[in-house]
Amino acid sequence: MAHYGIQAAVTAKTASKRSPNVEQALLSWIFENIGEKVPEGIAYEEILKDGVVLCKLMNKIKPGAIDKFASGGSAYILMENINKFLKAAQDYGVPHDQLFRTVDLFERKNIPEVTAGIISLARVACNNPDYKGTQLEKWVFANN
């Protein structure tokens, strides 16, 4: 969809905040933690959009954090996955103001905010002595 005027400027500014290297590092960290291969040829936001991967990640970081999530269904059900992830991340210790909004991911409104939220989760997890997962590369924290 083409954007014009202010919307085009906002879209361009948001896109300029994205870093393919950071996004790839996050995908590697996520998929190493959940024990799956990173899907090839699929955009970062598409991999995360339905919330399934994020729910799996949260359950690896804190087993049982999310009791049930759907791997398909209506937009409402998939957005609920994202909401469950966000609540579990906040319960785990990620400050609310460091998390993204559901529409930031589901409607691709602000993917840099999604990235920042996942980095905040990684920071909290990697600093938790009970966390046994893969460490996120230090340079990712330094760039955000």
TrEMBL record:
Residue ranges occupied by any Calponin-homology (CH) domain in the UniProt entry: 20-126
Molecular function, one GO term: actin filament binding
One of the protein's GO biological processes: actin filament organization
GO CC terms in record: actin cytoskeleton
Pfam families reported in the protein's UniProt record: CH
InterPro entries assigned: Calponin-like, CH_dom, CH_dom_sf, SM22_calponin
PANTHER family: CALPONIN (PTHR47385), MUSCLE-SPECIFIC PROTEIN 20 (PTHR47385:SF24)
Protein name: Muscle-specific protein 20-like
Gene: LOC113795777
